Amino acid sequence: MRLRIDETELDRLLHEGVVEETTVFAPEQRYSRRLRLDEIDGPELRSELRPADAALTVVLPRSQFEAFAAARPRRDGFEFEWQAVGADPLRVVVEIDVRDSHRQARSGAGRSGSI
Q1: Rounded to an integer, what distance in angstroms lies between the CA atom of residue 31 and that of residue 52?
Q2: 5, 41, 65, 66: which is deepest, by most CB within 10 A?
Q3: Is the pLDDT of residue 18 over 90?
Q4: Average pLDDT over residues 93-111
Q5: 42 DSSP 8-state letter
Q6: Of residues 10 and 75, more confidently modeled
């Protein structure tokens, strides 16, 4: 699973601790994706399933992700594997849009992306 954020979302993640995007498939059918920073030792995946909506939250260790983000622009992602019981490991990669990082460095302008 790959999550890509741009500089605007990165700034919000670093300052507010969370970015979220919701897709509405029908009036009562939504799917949300969240990327959250927390004071934890290792990455976590959390899921919520309700009749009308579902959410997947990727929780990253704040200090590790801050160090990763400080070294941008970079082409690799913050990567980990999540092992669910009875399933193959899920490879999760959180990327910071390199092209957006270069644009930000040149112009200082912001733009929105998606997770």
Answers
A1: 9
A2: 5
A3: yes
A4: 69
A5: S
A6: 10
